[in-house]
Amino acid sequence: MADETVRKQNKKYGQELLHDPLLNKGTAFTDRERNEWGLHGLLPPRVTTIEDQVMRAMENYRAKPNDLEKYIFLDGLHDRNETLYYRLIIDHMEEMMPIVYTPTVGKACQEFGHLYRRGRGMFFSALDRGNIARFLRNWPADDVRVIVVTDGERILGLGDLGANGMGIPVGKLSLYSACAGIDPAKTLPITLDVGTNNRELLDDPLYLGIRRNRLRGDAYDDLVEEFVQAATARWPRVLIQFEDFANINSFRLLEKYRHRICAFNDDIQGTAAVALAGLYSALRITGGRLIDQRLLFLGAGGAGIGIGELIVSAMQVEGLSEDEARKRCWFVDSKGVVVKGRSDLQAHKLAFAHDMEPVSDFMTAIRELKPTGIIGVSGMPGSFNRETVQEMSRLNQRPMVFALSNPTSKAECTAEDAYRWSAGKAVFASGSPFAPVELEGKTLVPGQGNNAYIFPGLGLGVVVSQARHVTDEMFAAAARTLAFEVAESDLAMGRIYPSLARIREVSLEIAAAVARVAYDQGLAEAPEPEDIPARVREEMFEPVYKRLAL
Fold this sequence. Notes:
Largest sheet: 7 strands, mixed
Mean pLDDT: 95
Distance between the termini: 15 Å
Number of strands: 14
Number of helices: 25
Strand order of the largest sheet: 8-7-6-9-10-11-14
Oligomer: single chain
Low-confidence stretches: 1-9
CATH architecture of the domain at 49-261: 3-Layer(aba) Sandwich
Strand content: 5-15%
Shape: globular
Radius of gyration: 24 Å
CATH class of the domain at 49-261: Alpha Beta
CATH superfamily of the domain at 49-261: Malic enzyme, N-terminal domain
Helix content: 40-55%
């Protein structure tokens, strides 16, 4: 449906038009539009351009005293004028990504009930059983293509934030639109409020979620099932992204729904793809093949196991058997190395339990296993200490050190520590941003293994192809494409991911690769276009003002 037709059908007028963030242009409404839509007298007389508005917004944004205030400013702009909001982010991607998403979004989630101003997205609580389909009809859009849903139990590395976790789906969908051009009118953030075990929140008079401990067992599964059935019934072509579910549920839900509907878990699969892309890029610096690496993970939750599984698949493509590939990936959890002799292993860890005498600490594991790379997904700040990095540097000419835990406060080590402790030898990546490091006259630029490199482009490829399912092959294709987009000039600075300033063009390439897989696997409902990249580009939302038609 054309933009003008949507606006005609809405029939909004005057103040009502100014209060619709999808239609509002503020001072950029033309004289003709002000005449036609009853806006004269409601705005200052001068008609400005979107460039003028960006200049004003940036002046106000940069005047804010801290990152949380900047987040609040952008959130308010999002509520008033979505076109300007996305224009601002796209034009200043590297500056605003840490505000719109990690690390600042973590603080915003912690303060959600205290910062709340205006509703965005939908909440369904454990008290809504039997009514979700009816309540979903309250959402005005008839063509939702992407839903990000959380139950708030494992928000970044911050733990159980209950209904406060809504900041994550909102932030993720902002990145879908800013990074890959998914039309924001076709996205929907959802929180399933099943309670919280966070006593601090339950005692907070401004907490906005239901005041009860978390729902578990069949009652929990039934609520999720009701939501999935209701969402896919109303929007049969919707992609559902499960976000920040705890390990107790994340693996189960992924396996339950991934072959039934179009769904994925970004913490498990998106993190895996961005980490695999980082390994491919790092190997362009260190030399060698993926199948020759021995990787040691600190953390064996959804992110770690997801990375391991995708690496195993990639190694199999390069010629290893599944068993040989799994023996290249080792995990350390809170009780030590994951080995077959342990009786306390959760189901998702069993495939990576190897024959070895029990080892209780990470440092000993490094000395015994002699990994070429360490990957931190533990949420334990400082766990990659000086001794760890120096031992990795003794074992390897160019050790790979990936401190992927979010937000920044949870990173296993900082970029500066990794570079200085390794005398500049480490190939470093992190989940949250770190500033460049000056070392012995050279500037080293750390790579940020941000999932935003993967999930927006993947989602766009799914939307364009109307894929029925999201497959491992799609994530592998996304990882290879992302690695290919890293230039030699990036690698020379130590950066193993492309600049965030290029993320829209990178997302376009990833979307085309994902759509290609959907067509090759027979999963696409949309007719295959002659030129897939051109079709992807055609689909991408651009934040520009369009004339309102009567």
